[in-house]
Amino acid sequence: MLSYAVALIGILVVFNSPLNDFLFSNVNPKQCPGQIPQLRRIPLSKLNLKEDLIALEGNSSLQCMPHTPAPVVHVYSREPLVLYIENFLSLDEREHLLGISSSAKNRLLTPHPSEPLFEPSTTTSDGGQTTHRNTTVRDSEVAVIPRTDRVRCIENRAREIQGWRENVFIERLRTQRYRQGGHYNHHFDWSSNRGGWGRVSSFMVWVDDGDGSLVGGGTEFPRMKRSKDPRWCAFIECPGKTADKGDGLEQTPELGVTFKVIPGNAVYWENFRSDGTGRGWVEAWHAGLPVEKGVKVGLNIWSTGYIE
């Protein structure tokens, strides 16, 4: 029986594309003994960057005015890089996102102005080739929102935070609506890399919590190290005090971070290591926890680009 189990694990490692990409990154270690295997990359020209999926640059004359209160960035982790951003969205931007997500009249493409943009969310397990609906894995509604001037300003802000990285493109922004019971099981955003290109970073931005009526729905990173500084309890779920080692700080489990749903705020993280191997961070494993009461609306900002 043991030999059968070992054989089965071997088959899964070889033929499961996301797992294979994560573990081996399409690199043959025999070709570079004694060295960290480096990722092979295909030219940008071979990528199919469709404008319906990628927010390509445009409208250089767009004027994006700073909003108040101004965004404040906190470094939560350095490896992987995780940033927490207060006031990433203004109240006006949040209301705009809710408006264009809830009604298709802003698309100017349909004779039915009351038709909603939100559609049932899907999942993929083969690098994006096929999608399917599975509410046991992901139960929410998604809207690929139109690129209004305000939306383009949000895209620009996401680029600025990343330092205007070369060969990194913001994907079309998507709002996600989670009703009671809605959730997204633990997953990696990167799926798999293609020739050294992939979804290099993610923002989870909170748009609405039903005027504070929301219960549950936090974003959980079970493999991420928990900060012991109690000031983070304003933004993450903190368990009760267990033991005090004399430093005045509450001692909590070392792993497992759940960011609270705070409208306007955002968490940003890097999906891949910056060592040339194309390997992803295991700490980026995350989930949208079930909504126990109310409705949550979030905004996904993903960046596709060159894996460093």
UniProtKB/TrEMBL annotation:
The region annotated as signal peptide is 1-16
Q: Name one GO molecular function term.
A: procollagen-proline 4-dioxygenase activity
**Superkingdom of source:** Eukaryota
Keyword Disulfide bond on this protein? Answer: no
Compositionally biased tracts (Polar residues):
120-134
Classification lineage: Eukaryota, Fungi, Dikarya, Ascomycota, Pezizomycotina
Q: Does the keyword Disulfide bond apply?
A: no
* GO annotation, cellular component aspect: endoplasmic reticulum
Protein name (record): Fe2OG dioxygenase domain-containing protein
Chain residue ranges for the region called Disordered: 109-135
Q: Which cofactor does it need?
A: L-ascorbate
This chain's source organism reads Neurospora tetrasperma (strain FGSC 2508 / ATCC MYA-4615 / P0657)
**Which keywords does this chain's UniProt record carry?**
Dioxygenase, Iron, Metal-binding, Oxidoreductase, Signal
